[in-house]
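I hope you will forgive my troubling you with a question about protein structure. The matter concerns a single protein, recorded as an amino acid sequence and a row of backbone structure tokens. Please examine both parts with care and let me know of anything in them that strikes you as inconsistent. Here, with my thanks, is the record as I have it:
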Amino acid sequence: SVDCSFSRGVCDWKQDVDDDFDWNPADRDRGDGYYMAVPAFVGHKKDMGRLNLLLTDLKPKSSYCLIFSYRLAGERVGKLRVFLANKKTTPVWEQNKGKDERWRTGKIDIFQGAETTNNVTFESERGKGKTGEIGVDNVILISGLCPES
């Protein structure tokens, strides 16, 4: 497995230069490193912030599972979407409301066909709310399909 987490990961993360705002590091409650977050008050409604995970070493014709922690905290905070480079127009994963402020786990299967996915984009869309944040942490890439549980 490949650790792509922000504090100690080995992956290449890049802010999108054509979006409306950047994701920023936020300290974890436990004090052991940081996660990436977009506070609810950044930008205007419907503005987007994109954080790209560049995947250079994926083998063609194999499958991977991208596992990550996410949190949508606050009322009407917005949307979190994940896009794969070879399917830029349709998100492969989307969440627009947290039941509470807890961290949850997202999983995405990445199938490598003739085209290799070389980029995963985490996109935050600003909502109407003024409090809370959208956060992403503990991004890990493992070989094979995602486990069911």
